[in-house]
From TrEMBL:
Protein name: DUF2029 domain-containing protein
Keywords: Membrane, Transmembrane, Transmembrane helix
Organism: Bradyrhizobium rifense
Superkingdom of this protein's organism: Bacteria
Keyword Oxidoreductase: no
Chain segments annotated as transmembrane: 33-53, 110-130, 137-157, 163-182, 194-223, 229-252, 312-329, 341-358, 365-384, 396-413
Amino acid sequence: MLQRATTATDLRESMPAAGGLRRSWTTNLRGKTLAPIAIVVCSMLAGALYTFAMGEDVNWDWQNYHEYNVWAVLNGRYGVDAIPPGFQTYFNPIVYFPVYYLRHFLPSPYGLMIIGAVHGLNLALICLFARLVLGQAATFAAIAAAVAIAASGPMTLSEVGTSFSDVLLALPVIGGFLLILVGDRRPTVRYLLAGLLIGAAVGLKLTNVVYAIGAAAAVLAAARPLRASVLLGLGGIVGAALTGGEWCLIAWRDTGNPIFPLFNAVFQSGEVAAINLMDAQFMPHGVLDALAYPFYWVVGDHRGAEHPFRDARFAVVTVLLVLGLLARMTRNSAILTRRDVQLVVLFAVSYLAWMGLFSIQRYAVILELLCGPIIVLLLARLAASAGPTFPTTSPVPLNALMLTVAAAIALWSQPADWWHRPWSEAYRPKIADELGQPATYFILGKPLAYIAPQLPPQSRFYLLADIGVPIVPGGIFDQRIRAGLKAPLPGGLRELHMRGEPDRSALLDRYALAIDPARPCVAIEGARPGTILESCPLIERGSR
């Protein structure tokens, strides 16, 4: 039978159907494109607005070394000064360059609002993370619950729009974790890239090593664990070398220790005692104390941080993990997929490494962000395993439960505050005329290094008051100080201290110096509201 030839009438009749199909495809494509863009924009906007609401960041670490270390690199100060920030002088400054430039080259509040917007990208990443790990359970409510839990983290909020690098480096670390969870497809590229991202974060800030340990444990549950481990390790080495290698060489050249002053029992720098310095003030005292930490945080017992905070998310994760283990044992069947197991291992091992190394709350920002996806995942898996005891014919009860838990966690959370100033009183200290000449400053407290860039650029700054890294007699810093004393500057010799702090003028005895009682001290407004720095003139002891 011959086919009928297509007529113009047939074409006209088919065109509306084709047009409708094309419009439907275009609408679909536009929706898939606009949704991620909207999520990213909203995340960045949330970070910027939160920064604006909080005010100008003047946290302790910014006062001590975030500001000074970048300024010192840009102005060649590492061969002139003697460790003004003390212990933290040789911490890698590269990660602090963006916030330094944004603070100095854009008017307030725009510079810090931009960095806050970048920090806000973590919410978009958590949204993607939650969608991936939840799979078919990724309802709008589930993803919203995960993001709400992440967005209300007390340490996360405390760092948004600040110079702290933990929340900034959460982006490559969580990105690396995401690649590990999808690493079994195109494993070579994804595991290498995951290692590169996590390694880069470690090179920029060594405390991120806990997440490298968690990642290494997680790939043991990969489809081909040996291959995954090798690729992750290679990527990690390259990433750490790219971001931290050059700075390690500089520190090694200057002090004999590539990560000075850490692990000096290994590297044996003569500038500090041959011990492995650790900040153990927040560490738990025994196993039971460690197990109780998440529940301490629920009631506002803020061991792990200098400033008060309150947080329930880690306690919720702990309870859900115990319930999941009990469900697995009683039902004798797995309730988690292999990818779920990878995520739980990654989280648990990172947490244990964090607690075993330092237990400093700010360093757990990445774990805090990941609590959101993990809580909704565990709720979904426990509900699915409950069988007839939980209504599964409709997602409404589970969605309601997730949103209720998220709301309770968010409302209960209380963020820490590392000190802010109102934008109307942005920190621009007035330097008295008496300090207008370059001088040699002996610093008798911390954190005071941030004032160095405000003083005449030819000045010299020597810290005598650091407990972790005291000036070693005959060492390179001691020699530098003594050489400086033989080459006086026009402004003479002065000391710097914080008004109201204990008197540390006895530290000047080593260099036969004393505060000159015949001349007045000069006050400088401190960065933290209500604080005053003082600079007093010095004289040689023999001339009193």
